[in-house]
Amino acid sequence: MRWTVVAANLPYLLGGLQGTVLLGLLVLALGTLLGFLVGLARLSRGVVYAAATAFVELFRDTPLIMQIFFLFFGLPAVGIRLSAFLAASVAMTFFAAANTAEIVRGAIQSLPRGQWEAARSLGLNRSQTLRWVILPQALRRSLPPLMGLFTTLLKDTSLAAIVNVFELTTAGRRVVERTLASFEIWLTVAALYFLVCYPLSLVTQRLERRLVAEVP
Amino acid sequence: MSRTDPIILLQGVHKWFGRLHVLRGIDLEVWPGEVVVICGPSGSGKSTLIRCINRLERHDRGRIVVDGIELTDDLRHVDAVRREVGMVFQQFNLFPHLTVLQNITLAPVLVRKWPREQAERVARELLERVGIPEKADRYPSQLSGGQQQRVAIARALAMQPKIMLFDEPTSALDPEMIQEVLDVMRDLARRGMTMVVVTHEMGFAREVADRIVFMDEGTVVEVAPPATFFTSPRHDRTRAFLSKILR
Questions:
Q1: Mutation for A interface: B56, B126, B157, most A CBs within 10 A
Q2: How far apart are the C-alpha atoms of B195 and B11, rounded to whole Å?
Q3: Contact between B152 and B92 (Cβ < 8 Å)
Q4: Which of A19, B133, B156, B160 could be joined to A167 by an S-S link, Cβ 3.0–4.6 Å?
């Protein structure tokens, strides 16, 4: 075992980790925002509903890796060239949005109908009911599954490595190619992913316990 | 009290759930200040009827006029009616993420545009009236069923409605909590509130109702003041129902 290789390349790997975290945060921020809007659109009717549904089904029912391939390798055929970073982050944002939308919609529809009825019978209109009664409860309910989605997404940023975006997995591969220290480097890369994702999992579990305790 | 116009008017109201014909031509008038109790076997359409009055259910045929406003697809009319009609549900339907005080002040602040201090003052007065002023800052899950239902009544009253609808308000309560809710409703009736109450509490009906409506299979079978209703009902179906419910 050549652990000195790890020490020598750790700064480079940490640079990759930085790329992972930045990509992750970007995707989470944009994906959650977009997903929230799409989730609300799924509660309306007509064209808006149809478009939102098509979006959700399209990006939930195809593998993320295919979406990245399509944006990066497929689109140039019709004259649209995206950088690897842009292709990966757009695909991941849409993937995150489609999943967030389903979590938000599910949480809203899991609330008892009596909540709507009580608010409407008090004279609140639809948007007031949504804003003050439904969403505050739905967001609490969707927090644990959203955190779970965040953890998954953070790990899935490693898929960006296949189009050579610089993040932790790409950094690991380059070091391995140079040093041939597969065992030590991949173990280190795995440990770095774990160090970021494990605390997220812990927070998720604590949130779940707390929310279960508070809403009987 | 001038008996000029009924405050609630139903004419030939029909309602279908898919192929199920749940209301089959209901005619009913409720006068200002009146307490009307609706009873009948389950599935008779009584809950659907009361839910049509504030359009939680949409009627398919006939007319419903509440406080001079006809309920149509025009949402402004629906909102106008809902502001004047309070409703209390079997399952309370309090907002679990808000405190008792916030539950009560939400609608007056958002809909009536009252300043927060005014809404809170009224809310505390109402909590006093329903007997639980000390629970203002609790969450619904920290209250007993009876207390929750009293908060729900206070929440509806905070909008200062002209009419209160009660949809089986004591059916989900443990027996020992039923009276505290009925006491609040009695007090409300004594103060002259117009009330339409769906309930199986025949003691309450006998004591408080001006008229009792007996429904069966989507129709109004019999309407009578309590004295007549309990002692000499005219219809066999009413008699059969009463013999089951009053043992």
A1: B56
A2: 19
A3: yes
A4: A19
Q: Which two tokens stand for residue A35?
A: 């997903």
Taking Cα atoms as reference points, which of A45, A118, A123 lies closest to residue B76? Answer: A123
Secondary structure (H, E, C), A162-196: HHCCCCHHHHHHHHHHHHCCHHHHHHHHHHHHHHH
Q: Name A65's Cβ contacts closer than 8 Å, sequence gap at least 6.
A: A159, A162
Interchain CB distance below 8 Å, B56 and A140:
no
Does the interface ipTM go beyond 0.85?
A: yes
Going across the sheet that includes B20-30, the strands are B20-30, B8-17, B61-66, B69-70
Query: Beta strand pairing status for B61-66 and B8-17?
Result: antiparallel
d(CA A6, CA A17): 14
Rounded to 5°, angle at Cα A155 from A150 and A158: 135
- Report yes or no: A24 and A154 within 8 Å, Cβ to Cβ: yes
What predicted TM-score, i.e. pTM, was given to this entire model?
Answer: 0.86
pLDDT in the model for residue A212: 66
Given strand B85-88, what is the order of strands in its sheet? B85-88, B163-167, B194-198, B35-39, B211-216, B219-224
Instruction: List the single residue in B79, B89, B97 with the smallest CB-CB distance to A118.
Output: B89
Q: Is B17 on the interface with A (CB under 8 A)?
A: no
Cβ contact, residue pair A122, B156, below 8 Å: yes
Interchain contact B102–A (C-beta under 8 A): no
Rg (Cα) of chain B, in Å, rounded? 18
**DSSP string for A97-151:** HHHHHHHHHHHHHHS-HHHHHHHHHTT--HHHHIIIIIHHHHHHHHHHHHHHHHH
**A216 confidence band (pLDDT: 50, 70, 90):** very low
Q: Which residues contact B162 (CB under 8 A, 6 or more apart)?
A: B7, B32, B67, B84, B85, B194
To which H or E segment does residue A12 belong?
helix A3-41
